[in-house]
Each structure stands twice: as structure tokens, then as C-alpha cells.
Amino acid sequence: MVDKSAKWITSLREDIRKACGDGWMVRGIGNGHVQKVQLTVRFEDGKRSSIVLGPKAKSDPDFIPWVGTSTGWILNISKDISFTMKSKSKDLAEAYELVKQKRQSGLSGKLDWEKLSTKFKIHKTSNGNKGTRVWNRNYRTTIDRTLLIISSEPPMSSGHSVLKTLVERHGGKPGSASRRLRVQYAAEFLRFAFRNGASKSWLPPKDLKIFIGEKVAINQVREDERILKSS
Prior knowledge:
This protein is mainly alpha-helical. It has nine helices and three strands; from the N terminus they run αβββαααααααα.
């Protein structure tokens, strides 16, 4: 049986080699179903250097597992490390420490959500006029509302709380297309934020049905109304 994870692993490794060089490799290490992410660089003289990306303790809430949903984060931080190694003449471990310091000072604590939303907009509109139209029609209002929710009091601390508040304020009917799209667009932005340095707590749940809800069949509504009238 073919390992279903092989496709995302192969794609991630190809993307990292294209962005960082042929000597750059990633893999999962450790015992158990949840593995750590190991980044290895093979230099021209044949020597290798390796580091673990993210917290080493699996109990840490910001632990990054070797799974498909981590690929964007792994790719982006690998690019940052590669750039730092080249621009500042640092070895792998030193470059990683500098990248972590930069991310912690720039995006941890009080996150710069406005900057992230601008970066997300550029990402979504990069294909020209079509992208701009899609953004204005589909994303703009939802992302603006998401930013207001994130900056509201009491402060939000997770992607789950953001989506919960979004549907409470702007959701629409459970199971409706408008509600489903609002949740999907906001979740897409939160996943983008994680890939670009936000902590893992901002990731939305994999299953969004809890926020989207389900349509109530018209026959069920009529039956409920009949029971109420006869009681």
C-alpha cells in the first residue's frame, strides 16, 4: 500500500531544494505517531549539519509535528534560515537562532495582524486583475471582520475563538453557502498567519463543520411547527 503522506513529503522536499539548494533536506524523526521535524544541510565538502525545527518537547503548545499541515511553516522557516546563512555568513544552528529571535520579536506576543493581512492580500492578488476582483468580492469583508475580532477585548488567543466569534457576529444561517465561505476564508487567513510566524494556537481546527453548521431540512421544520401547534 502506498503511503498517503509520501505526496506532501515529496512536494515539500522539492520546494525546499528549489528555494534553498540541493543539499537541503527535511524528514520526521523520533518514536511514535507524532514526529519532530529535522532540517539537514549537506555542504559542498560533504559535511552535514542538522537541527530540530520548533520546540523539541511534544508537550509544548507550539510544537511543530511532521505532518502535512506543517508544510507551509517548514518551507517558510527553511527559506528564512537559508537567507540568513548566506547574508550573515552563519552556520545552520546560528542562523536558526537569529531567525527565531527575529520571529519572536516581530510576531510573538502582540502579533502584527495588519502586516499579516497585507501580506495575505498580496499573496491572493498576485495574479493580477483577476486576483484583485476575487479579493474584493470574496475575501475583503471577511478578513476585515476577522481583524476586528482579533483586536477586540478581551483579546483572542486562538483560531478556534476567532472563528467562533465570527459566526456569532456574522455567520448567517447554519449550513448556508455564505456562512461556509466566511468560515473558509477566515480559516485560510489563519493558516497563512501560522505559516508566516504566528504561533500554532492560531491554526483553525481541521474540521470546520462545528462553525459552518448544517442546514435544517424544510420537512423537519414543518414537523417541528406541527408538534408545537398541537402541544
